[in-house]
Design brief:
single chain; 90 residues; alpha+beta; two-stranded antiparallel ribbon; two-stranded antiparallel sheet
Length: 90
Amino acid sequence: MTTIEFEPGVVQDLKEAINRLASGDLAYAHELAWHDGNGRSHVQAALLGPSIALPIRRARLMLETWQQVVAINHDNRSRSRKVEVILLGV
């Protein structure tokens, strides 16, 4: 999960940056063990982290003008994922 200005140029830039951090061209030990093609997926997901914290004020997410919350699938195929929302505060 992250926030981003969800427009094609920024989305492409983020994809390329994540792929530079953990490229599909590298050898991953996970791949040697499981042969499922997604060793880089695990590394990319770990680098970004599993969650974000967002402030809510007066029942509204406090995002900047162009920010949207997005879930990123790093896997090499589509998967069904669940998103859990936890509200903390007074």
